[in-house]
Each structure stands twice: as structure tokens, then as C-alpha cells.
Amino acid sequence: YAAVWATENTREALFDAMARRETYATTGPRMLVRFFGGWDFDEADAQTRQPAVAGYQKGVPMGGDLTNAPRGKSPTFLVAALKDPIGANLDRIQIIKVWSDARMNRPVEKIYDVALSDGRTVADDGSVKPVGTTVDLKTATYTNTIGASSLKALWTDPDFDPADSAFYYARVIEIPTPRWVVYDAFRFGVDIPKEAQKTHQERAYTSPIWYTP
């Protein structure tokens, strides 16, 4: 699915939203995702029930551009996600940074886990314990006894270099759910192929926020 953050449900507003790239996509679920970047967000902005208010007042939304980094400041990102009302809970939110490193003469990508469900934290080596699974392959079902219905985070880039061009986007990941081969096996009474992947984690991706020196 493709999602558009428009000011109203009209042809003009939808095209305006697409022109400013305030859009995101999912692999199927109807998750709600907000993603803002700026220089002046604080922790209180991540605690409000309306993060978009602070997002628009203090920064730019997904699809926007950040320029002219204030001296001594790194970009801060405000991200929030709400699960599909009839879908799976959320596992985590990640922010992916891609930047042009002049010293290495190539683009570099790094993934940051910024919001985790079930009280998990990021280890010193950057790893995260898996959320687990509730999938029952025999009945092609899962339960929302793990994960979270919503996640929010305020994240500041710890590796920011104001001389490097970069872009950032958010990725929201659900808990594991059955893949289509599991549903087919249950409905039609056939065996699941041994080589088939039996579960997956649906996700959403936002338009990037660019930083230009």
C-alpha cells in the first residue's frame, strides 16, 4: 500500500502531498507512521499524543530537506507508529541512514534500532534480542501477546558529520506472522514445502528526510 499525508481528501491536496514527498509505503498492513526531522526537538515532543504538532512546528516531515546545520547540533528525528487495527503488533522502529562519506569515496548505510517493544534494549554491540514468535503453523494463526500496539521515539544521529550529505528514513517492523504458504497449507490441506520460508515480518517504509550541507 502507498499512504499519503494530505491536508484533505481532495485531488489537489493529494497531488500536493505527493509533490512534497510526504508519503510512505507498507508491504500490506495499514499502519500509521509519522516521521519528522529537525534541530530543536526535545524529549517532551516524543511523549505527546500528537507528535505531528511538534513535528510540523519544529521540523520537516518525511520527504523534507534539512540544511544549514547549526554549529554543534546534530539532526534529531521524531518517529511514531500505530499498528494496523486488525493486524499484528509492532516489533520495532528503525531509522536507516545513508550518507556520502568523502573519505571512503562511497555511500555508507547504517541501521539504528530506535524503538523496541516488550522492554528490550540495544546491546553494547548494537544487537537486539528478537521479539519472538506466536505463529502456529498448524492452524496458520498468530496472537498479539508480544509486541506493541504503538511505538514512539526521539533519536539524535550520534555519527553526524555536517560536511557529509545524507538521508534518513524510518522502517516500522511488525511481529512475525504466517506467510501465504502457511495459509495455503491450512486451507487446502497440503504440505508446506520444506524449503519455504514459513513466517515473515510485514513492514512500512517512509520517504526519506535529506540533509544537504
Distance N to C terminus: 33 Å
Q: Categorize the overall geometry.
A: globular
H and E string? EHEEHHEEEEEEEEHEEE
Poorly predicted runs of 5 or more residues: none
Main beta sheet strand tally, sense and closure: 8 strands, mixed
* CA radius of gyration: 19 Å
The DSSP helix count reads 4
Query: How many E-type strands?
Result: 14
Q: Helical content, roughly?
A: 10-25%
Query: Helix/strand-derived class?
Result: mainly beta
How much of the sequence lies in strands comes to 35-45%
- pLDDT averaged over residues: 95
Structure write-up:
It is a single chain. The protein has about 210 residues and is mainly beta. It has 4 helices and 14 strands. The chain has helices at about 10-20, 45, 50-60, 180-190, and strands spanning about 1-5, 25, 30-40, 60, 65, 75-80, 90-100, 105-115, 150-155, 165-175, 175-180, 200, 205, 210. Strands 1, 2, 5, 7, 8, 10, 13 and 14 form an 8-stranded mixed beta sheet that branches. A hairpin with a 4-residue loop joins β7 and β8 (about 105-115). It is globular, with a radius of gyration of 19 Å. The two termini are about 35 Å apart. The mean pLDDT is about 95.
Short description:
The chain is mainly beta. It has 4 helices and 14 strands.
Question: What structural keywords apply?
Answer:
4 helices, 213 residues, mainly beta, 14 strands
Topology:
Layout: E1 2-4, H1 11-19, E2 23-26, E3 32-38, H2 43-47, H3 51-58, E4 59-61, E5 65-67, E6 76-82, E7 90-101, E8 106-116, E9 150-156, E10 166-174, E11 177-178, H4 180-188, E12 199-200, E13 203-206, E14 209-212
Parallel strand pairs: 5-14
Antiparallel strand pairs: 1-2, 2-13, 3-4, 3-6, 6-9, 7-8, 7-10, 10-13, 10-14, 11-12
